[in-house]
Amino acid sequence: MYNILLALHSILRWAIVLLLVFNILRLLSSTVTNKVALSKWLLIAAHTTLLIGLYQYFAGGSGYAIIQQYGLEAAMQDSAKRFWAVEHPVGMLAAIVFITVGHISLKKSGNAKRTAVFYAIALILILAIVPWPMREAVGRPWFPGMN
Ligand code: HEM
Ligand code: HEM
What we know:
By secondary structure, the protein is mainly alpha-helical. It has helices spanning 2-28, 36-59, 64-70, 72-77, 79-109, 112-129.
C-alpha cells in the first residue's frame, strides 16, 4: 500500500508540472474563455499529492521519523536529513498553498494574470524541491520503479 501511494505521489509530480505550465500559458492567453476548468485539475492533483505526502511524512521513514530518531538539531545539520524532514514538506506545502490561493482567486475575481503569477511561483518552488535523480544524497528516480 505504501509503495503504491509513493508511486502515485511520484507520478503526480509530472501531472502538476505539466498542468502548471499549461495553465500559465492559458491564463496569459487572451483567446481562451474558460480558464477555470484546467485550473481545477491542477488543484485536485496538488491536493491529492499533499494528502499522500502528509501520510508518507508521518507513516514512513523519510519524514517525521528522521526528527524522532536524530532530534531536530542534528537533522538540521545534515543536508539530506534536513531535506526530507523540513525542506520538502514545508516548501511543497507552500507551493500547494500558492496553487490553492491562485485557483480560488481565479474563480472569485477572474484575475488571470494574478493567478498566473501565483502558479509561476509554485512552479519554481516545485522544480527546486522535487528530489530529482541528479540531486546528491536525496535523488529519487524520474519515474516510479526506474533506477
Ligand atoms: C490534506 C488534504 C487536503 C487539504 C488540507 C485540502 C485543503 C483544501 C482547501 C484549504 C481548499 C480551499 C477551500 C475554499 O476556500 O474554497 C480546498 C479546496 C478543494 N480541494 Fe482540497 N484539500 C485536501 C485534499 C483534497 C483532495 C484529496 C482532493 C481531491 C482529490 C481535493 C480537492 C479539492 C477541490 C476540488 C477543491 C475545491 C476548489 C474550488 O473551490 O474550486 N482536496 N482544499
Ligand atoms: C507539489 C507537491 C509535491 C511534489 C511534486 C512531491 C514530489 C515528491 C517526489 C518526486 C518524491 C520521491 C518519490 C520516490 O521516491 O519515487 C517525494 C517523496 C516524498 N514526499 Fe513529496 N512531493 C510533494 C509534496 C509533499 C508534501 C506536501 C509532503 C509532506 C507533507 C511530502 C512528503 C514526502 C515524503 C515523506 C516523501 C518520501 C517518502 C518515502 O520515501 O517514504 N511531499 N515527493
